[in-house]
Amino acid sequence: MEEEDEEARGLLGDRPEGDNAVPGAPRALPALCDPSHLAHRLVVLFLMCLLGFGSYFCYDSPAALQTQVKQDMQVNTTKFMLLYAWYSWPNVVLCFLGGFLIDRIFGIRWGTVIFSCFVCIGQAIFALGGIFNAFWLMELGRFVFGIGGESLAVAQNTYAVSWFKGKELNLVFGLQLSMARIGSTVNMNLMGWLYTKIEASLRSPGHMILGVTLMIGCVTCILSLFCALVLAYLDRRAEKILHKEQGKTGDVIKLTDVKDFSLPLWLVFIICVCYYVAIFPFIGLGKVFFMEKFGFASQSASAINSVVYVISAPMSPVFGLLVDKTGKNIIWVLCAVATTLVSHMMLAFTFWNPWIAMCLLGLSYSLLACALWPMVAFVVPEHQLGTAYGFMQSIQNLGLAVISILAGMILDTRGYLFLEVFFIACVSLSLLAVVCLYVVNRARGGNLNYSAKQREELKLSHSE
Amino acid sequence: MCRCWGPYWGWVPCAPTPWLLLSLVCAAPFGLLGEETRQISMKVISSWPNPQNLLHIRAVGTNSTLHYVWSTLGPPAVVLVATNTTQSALSVNWSLLMSPDPYGGLMVLPKDSIQFSSALVFTRLLEFDSTKVSKGATQPSGKPYPPYSLAEFSWNNITNSLDLATLSAIFQGHPVDEPTGAFANGSLAFKVQAFSGSGRSAQPPRLLHTADSCQVEVSLDGASPRGNHSVFGLEVATVGTGPDCPSVKELHSIDDEYAPAVFQVNQLLWGSSPSGFMQWRPVAFSQKQRNRESAVPCQASSLHPTLAYSLPSSPVVQAFFGSQNLCAFNLTFGAPTGPGYWDQHYLSWSMLLGMGFPPVDALSPLVLGIMAVALGTPGLMLLGGGLFLLLRHKQYSEYQSIN
């Protein structure tokens, strides 16, 4: 390609700025421009974190504007929750295909750019649905957004693995997740306020104001797309300079492996699905719940709805460290699920200040993520890991898609108390699965509940 | 605002006295013990020569009778009387009733059997322009338009709308002389329904009723509003039992199963329970298909004593109570934004009216069942799993390892 020729010429010949000098050549690169130097990798880390910002910012825009969407587009809660369901539907299949697409078809750089484009275009179509007052267009926008959203997360992780190794990797994953959650929090607290400001300045019908607000949210997606382009450039440059391989997900997905999954793994899947369907649809519907039951104003209701994300941003690394140091994953999962059960019961059956319940929910959500996902790696051999994680993500998205619609229907016909009781039933199913997992693990002498020391001993004895 | 967590997993009146004790100690001499079932009889008492609507609903229990006397002579009004005998009867003197001083035209005999009596008058239909809300609490609903006085409405003949199968009757009316023609295709209707036992109505807000209560459904249909964003309201007057006016209590409830997203029940008690009560959910509906999308909030102002002459007077109330000062309050239905009367030119609101103990909502058996299973199963599983592991441990500990 022309650009490669130019670059090759640049390496051999003179160039006005010293950007593309070969390492080992007499002139060393400035720290910021040297791909092997920490300063440059921090810049890359910053860009990688911003990559997911737009996607997570726009994922929860329906939740932040629930009342406005329902009033301006004249839809009930069931149809409103379709906006979340349509995001999850493509990911039932894409979780298996994401790694394949990145490794074999597009490559990490083009893959990231393409997925960022999907995110951008999806959000733009979503906004256009508001401007043209067509709810079907909004659903289409969310579908396109969904195609890009989760796959972008896979690409983000692949970049992380490619640029950071060993102990740094956990920190990087943690930072990426924190940044994503910051994006969600900013969205929750900003979009409602933005809508009121635009409503005050524009004399337009409601759906137009909604569309304009969502289009402004699209700016964050354009920011992510820009980061994707810059990252692609920097990654290719680093490949040339450091002669390193283009990052691969390393996922080998073989659907036939599913029949080899053990009982503990299936129980982990059940815990995952039953737990997350009681969290994300709840946050999607939470704002109006806090306004109608506890009498919060719109802004405070948005703030309290975002508490789960606000807490998970700093606590995820902390809990990650805790679980790493102590082990005993099943016990931590049990604590997390039980705390979530208590939190939902508080929200359903009392009028106590919901800040308490939501803080508990945030803490337990972070703890569960840190304790549950590593368990898959403990029970599954390495060559099946890709399939196992892909399957877990896939059924999680399937559960979210179905339960989102169900939650909307329950709310329209039976009200919030019944919806909370439904979520309590889901969490209790998850709790049942945890208890079963503990018993099965104990009975079979499994290693899921080993303490950190026991795991070290196991690793040492295997390496001998 | 009272927030009370009560023994019925729902709301309880915030009176500190446990009402169960009250019911045992104080209700017996009052005879308002709360009957399970009552025999309902509905009779239209016709007048001559000008037909006026006078409906007498008599709910007879084992040792008490409740009388509801509904009339549209003047503004729509109901006289509530509770007696502690099954033999009490209503006596109507039409010539007195139609005279300028109607006192004595309506009587429940024997007089000494009367345990409680009061009246409710729907005096005016209010309308507010919700786009012109002034800062401050003076007019939270908006700038008021001139109200419609319900004393100047003409009503249908109640005999035609009486349905003895469902124990209901509908009073439907429109202004007699209305220059703007707002009610050309519209009407204001009061549907009164009596109950012989407890149950829950099928239509939202699905109020729970007992044999001691009857349901009143107010609906405004087809009247043209005077602005683009008109919010309607109703002015209601009651006869107070005592020097102070009773107050509307807002009871918070965790249970919104039957009225989705409404976590409150408003209650007006004429005295300390058991007494006359008015109970409603602060929600009205702006479409005939009553669902969450068409729900509009309902606000009730506080009751203030009003001089009798400033309100449209009801001859029926004067006939029973004489000249009395009334306590009046406003109910407004709707908010400036969201669903409202402007959607389909329809508004409906329901309330319960009765004498005795107000019905108490409880969690449905389905919710209780799900909670029992949801909390019980993991607990049982933990117990079972623990036992299983213990037995296995005992079984294996009997083995002695060879080396």
TrEMBL record, chain A:
<feature type="transmembrane region" description="Helical">
    <location>
        <begin position="263"/>
        <end position="283"/>
    </location>
</feature>
<dbReference type="InterPro" id="IPR020846">
    <property type="entry name" value="MFS_dom"/>
</dbReference>
<feature type="transmembrane region" description="Helical">
    <location>
        <begin position="355"/>
        <end position="379"/>
    </location>
</feature>
<keyword id="KW-0472">Membrane</keyword>
<dbReference type="GO" id="GO:0141204">
    <property type="term" value="P:dipeptide transmembrane transport from lysosomal lumen to cytosol"/>
</dbReference>
<dbReference type="GO" id="GO:0005765">
    <property type="term" value="C:lysosomal membrane"/>
</dbReference>
<dbReference type="GO" id="GO:0061462">
    <property type="term" value="P:protein localization to lysosome"/>
</dbReference>
<feature type="transmembrane region" description="Helical">
    <location>
        <begin position="38"/>
        <end position="59"/>
    </location>
</feature>
<keyword id="KW-0458">Lysosome</keyword>
<feature type="transmembrane region" description="Helical">
    <location>
        <begin position="330"/>
        <end position="349"/>
    </location>
</feature>
<feature type="transmembrane region" description="Helical">
    <location>
        <begin position="108"/>
        <end position="136"/>
    </location>
</feature>
<dbReference type="InterPro" id="IPR052187">
    <property type="entry name" value="MFSD1"/>
</dbReference>
<dbReference type="InterPro" id="IPR036259">
    <property type="entry name" value="MFS_trans_sf"/>
</dbReference>
<feature type="transmembrane region" description="Helical">
    <location>
        <begin position="80"/>
        <end position="102"/>
    </location>
</feature>
<keyword id="KW-0812">Transmembrane</keyword>
<comment type="similarity">
    <text>Belongs to the major facilitator superfamily.</text>
</comment>
<keyword id="KW-0813">Transport</keyword>
<comment type="subunit">
    <text>Homodimer. Interacts with lysosomal protein GLMP (via lumenal domain); the interaction starts while both proteins are still in the endoplasmic reticulum and is required for stabilization of MFSD1 in lysosomes but has no direct effect on its targeting to lysosomes or transporter activity.</text>
</comment>
<feature type="transmembrane region" description="Helical">
    <location>
        <begin position="303"/>
        <end position="323"/>
    </location>
</feature>
<dbReference type="InterPro" id="IPR011701">
    <property type="entry name" value="MFS"/>
</dbReference>
<keyword id="KW-1133">Transmembrane helix</keyword>
<feature type="region of interest" description="Disordered">
    <location>
        <begin position="1"/>
        <end position="20"/>
    </location>
</feature>
Automatic annotation (TrEMBL), chain B:
<feature type="signal peptide">
    <location>
        <begin position="1"/>
        <end position="27"/>
    </location>
</feature>
<keyword id="KW-0325">Glycoprotein</keyword>
<dbReference type="GO" id="GO:0045944">
    <property type="term" value="P:positive regulation of transcription by RNA polymerase II"/>
</dbReference>
<dbReference type="GO" id="GO:0050821">
    <property type="term" value="P:protein stabilization"/>
</dbReference>
<dbReference type="Pfam" id="PF15065">
    <property type="entry name" value="NCU-G1"/>
</dbReference>
<comment type="function">
    <text>Required to protect lysosomal transporter MFSD1 from lysosomal proteolysis and for MFSD1 lysosomal localization.</text>
</comment>
<keyword id="KW-0812">Transmembrane</keyword>
<keyword id="KW-0472">Membrane</keyword>
<dbReference type="GO" id="GO:0005765">
    <property type="term" value="C:lysosomal membrane"/>
</dbReference>
<comment type="subunit">
    <text>Interacts (via lumenal domain) with lysosomal protein MFSD1; the interaction starts while both proteins are still in the endoplasmic reticulum and is required for stabilization of MFSD1 in lysosomes but has no direct effect on its targeting to lysosomes or transporter activity.</text>
</comment>
<dbReference type="GO" id="GO:0061462">
    <property type="term" value="P:protein localization to lysosome"/>
</dbReference>
<comment type="similarity">
    <text>Belongs to the GLMP family.</text>
</comment>
<dbReference type="GO" id="GO:0005829">
    <property type="term" value="C:cytosol"/>
</dbReference>
<keyword id="KW-0732">Signal</keyword>
<feature type="transmembrane region" description="Helical">
    <location>
        <begin position="366"/>
        <end position="391"/>
    </location>
</feature>
<keyword id="KW-0458">Lysosome</keyword>
<protein>
    <recommendedName>
        <fullName>Glycosylated lysosomal membrane protein</fullName>
    </recommendedName>
</protein>
<dbReference type="GO" id="GO:0005634">
    <property type="term" value="C:nucleus"/>
</dbReference>
<keyword id="KW-1133">Transmembrane helix</keyword>
<dbReference type="InterPro" id="IPR029382">
    <property type="entry name" value="NCU-G1"/>
</dbReference>
